[in-house]
Amino acid sequence: MTEHTFATLASRWYERNARDLPWRKPGVGAWAILVSEVMLQQTPVVRVLPAWEAWLDRWPTPAALAGDTPAEAIRMWGRLGYPRRAVRLRDCAVAIVERHGGEVPDRLDQLLALPGVGTYTARAVAAFAYGQRHPVVDTNVRRVVCRAVAGEPDAGPATRPADLAATEELLPAEPAAAALASAAFMELGAVVCTARAPRCAVCPVESVCAWRASGQAAPAGPTRRPQRYAGTDRQVRGLLLAVLREATGPVPHQRLDQVWQDDVQRARALAGLVTDGLVEPVGEESFRLVGDGPPVPLPQP
Ligand code: SF4
What we know:
The protein has 15 helices and 3 strands.
């Protein structure tokens, strides 16, 4: 297989079959794409769609979000899960205003230096917002490349420099074509070459897939046990946050005590929210979402 063949097949398929997602539409800006990439981490598309629309309605620019409080970011995040992402996204917006005049930077090193923007997100923004040539490697892409190129059933859990190098080798030289191929690889992993049930019979790269060429059956991905939620600290944190999100001021300890009977677990969950920078104590007896109060003025971009 030539690298060119792989990217061409995937890109042609993507142009005809890509899901119609709003952050992929022409003219969507870098900020909207950055928000989508942060929300999509560990969260299904169907849950992100309404949250992304609402977020951008309220904060269409980094400056708009930077001018609001972290508490409001947590409120808007609602029940998307992993709410530290909301605070990090606001930290990111503040940094964009302070360092880049309110414009999402297009240089990879500057993107990587933003709070909460990691290896994957920085490259995704550079490729999808600015049409640059970078390997964009998430779990799905790692799996597709591992199967199709290396002929192995599944990649390991973490993105390694070798994953970036292996994916970069598949990208066309021309930046726009490379960005298109990156989007195609991601889509392929999300909807065709899935972890548990790859649909090889309808896969656009089947003819060049090393795994298929090896004559082995479609790989059965690892069986993921559903994560237990009921009774976990995550559930208690969610209940505490729900009360604090609804409140318009500090919430007395006694009110929070009502959300969960187990004193030790409740205290541990609350302490975790404070440690994670989502909640802060007010005096001796009350708590509130972090920074809940009048926003602090920021320097003008
Ligand atoms: S042929 Fe099957 S294993 Fe190979 S990339 Fe396509 S879906 Fe994945």
